[in-house]
Amino acid sequence: MFRRRLDEIEEARKRAQPLPSGAAPYTSSKFFKVQPLDTKPNAKCWSHRFSANSLIQTDSALKVASRDSDPLSMITLGTARPSPEYFPWESIEMRCPSSSPSKTPVAVSTACTKGEQEYDLSVAMNYGYSAGSPQVLRFVTEHIEMIHNPPYNDWESSLTCGTTSALEICFRIFSNPGDVVLMEEYSYIGTISAAKAQGLKILSVATDNFGVIPGDLDLQLDAWDPEIGPKPILLYMIPTGQNPTGVTHSNKRRREIYQVAAKHDLYILEDDPYYFLHLGPYSGPSDLEPDSTSLDEYLAHLPNSYLSLDVDGRVIRMDTTSKILAPGLRCGWITASSQVIRKFLSYSEVGVLSPSGPSQAMIYKLLDKTWGHEGFIRWLLSLSLQYRERRDLLLQACERFLPLDICSWAVPTSGMFLWIKIDSSKVTDVLNGDSDDIAWRRALQLEEEIFSQARRSGVLISKGSWFVPVVDESCGIYLRLTFAAAPRDELEPSDTAPG
């Protein structure tokens, strides 16, 4: 199956027109899709869900004017773009590893130079088109179609300056100040802060070991009181290896949540940075090798994305290079219906403008020219195996050193996080018999004691309270441990626990 998809991409490239050229060339996913256009229904219209600000946000006149011109035949006197003659860089040279980080890497040298045909460094160093360069957008579009295959026709992708930037724009597209956004009961602190910074309120939805509980989501929306304010229209989720809980939504749960979203006409923000970090069950360090056979197996074990279930165009999926390549690239991509992508680009044109040109050149030279689609998937599989080994080492250390009558956890099958629950009933004089408010304050005190003791012992952990969007009586004591950043030898259990 995977090989057939690669062959289809190769054949489509052979038939395709040359990539748009020149500085900031207009480009679109429509140019690069492998499947024939108009073979699927179009997305629903979503203008009724756009914010008041979004409805009046229009395309930049300068960008529209340059979009309609042929850069090779046009004398450019209209845009305030500096001359590439005076850019003080002639080339960028890179040494990239093979696509299997589990082995001794074989370095491959590549470069991006001024005047080259594949990706002119002068173009990369200039202002760029908000959706990204044709070279990178082509690869991303092929990747999205190969992995997710959205079930409607008019989907597009756009490069972003990372998910943090993309989320800020998404909130502006769909939300007015004072609106309510639905989030998992524990969620990423950056998103919580971004929503509150725009004057948005947060309503938490109950979760379990399979993800958001559809019944709780449905009940809260069915019982919504219009006197409180407009009914929520945005549902934000991290469905794979969730930050901070490590939970991955089951495929069954994803279908159920999508049905509830369709019933209440919700728009879903699918933030999925850990999608490709598939760890599998806890069975000790893996000695699997990422051969051609295991690539199909690896892809088969990835969950169905919400984008892959999206028959209405009610999902905007956010991917990022931060967890699978390098966060300093500040580059990612979103996928949604054309109408939503157009709004996203109109905000980008008057804000971040475009992702970094040098970052895009580095991504193109690595993903397209060095690895290709097969090498990229092989890298993701190898990365998953490496993180699986780190996860298993951390679990072994926790089993050895933590009091198992007080601490409990579910084994994360994706992502980077271990979410540890502290049973406060086993800790004397904490929470028992207290009112909700007093219990929460005492829980925070105990959490602070654990956090401070860990720091004194040379271990940095994250407090669970940092990830609570809405405090209520159900909030317990949790700790988030990340097994991705620490060196492998520091995760291996020793004879004594730290401190």
Automatic annotation (TrEMBL):
PANTHER family assigned: AMINOTRANSFERASE, AROMATIC_AMINOADIPATE AMINOTRANSFERASE 1
UniProt source species: Phomopsis amygdali
Database matches in Pfam families: Aminotran_1_2 (PF00155)
Biological processes per GO annotation: aromatic amino acid family catabolic process; lysine biosynthetic process via aminoadipic acid; tyrosine biosynthetic process
GO molecular function terms noted in the UniProt entry: 2-aminoadipate transaminase activity; aromatic-amino-acid transaminase activity; pyridoxal phosphate binding
All residue ranges annotated as the Aminotransferase class I/classII large domain in the record: 119-492
Organism superkingdom: Eukaryota
Cofactor(s) it depends on: pyridoxal 5'-phosphate
CDD domains: AAT_like
Entry annotated with the keyword Nuclease: no
Keywords for this protein: Aminotransferase, Pyridoxal phosphate, Transferase
Family statement: Belongs to the class-I pyridoxal-phosphate-dependent aminotransferase family.
Keyword Transferase attached: yes
Protein's name in the database: Aminotransferase class I/classII large domain-containing protein
